[in-house]
Amino acid sequence: MLPLILASSSPRRVDLLAQIGLKPDRILPSDIDETPLKSETPRELAGRLSRAKAEAVAALVTQPAYILAADTVVGVGRRILPKAETDAEVRACLELMSGRSHRVYTGVALVSPKGLSARVVETRLQFKRLSAEEIDAYIASGEGLGKAGGYGIQGRASAFVIHLIGSFPSVVGLPTFETLQLLRGAGYRG
To answer: From CA 5, how far away is CA 171, in angstroms rounded?
Structure first.
């Protein structure tokens, strides 16, 4: 059986793969520019980045393998929210999503001996109206740092969600159903 290489350093993605009985043989994060292109939608960005990550790692791997990559993007309308790196970015994201709907797009891409296959999974969420105290407490927890849209649904932010239509694991970082379908379709049986 060819090895499964995860093109991501996300512990959440490793955990999600474990939930569906898969363990990567290697973790080899990609290093690509994640800057959105002019006029790129959140959906387009998630798809492009997941494909680019898989292809970048495939270019480094010398033996045949299954290379899996993903990228999660949060959008409000056509606006792409950042992967929050500061408390101010977490605050701006939460204030924007407070009391309204947003979408989470997770692109998943697989380079295999059969070529490149990819999907983008869309999940719609609605947050409750957040008080200043709730936002302050969430920022103080540190959970939003390094997360697309400034929150992690698997933690304290789960209490903000009024409504979710789509894939919960996709919002966490990897759409497990679609990932398994891509792997099975490419012949992976690990």
So the answer is: 21
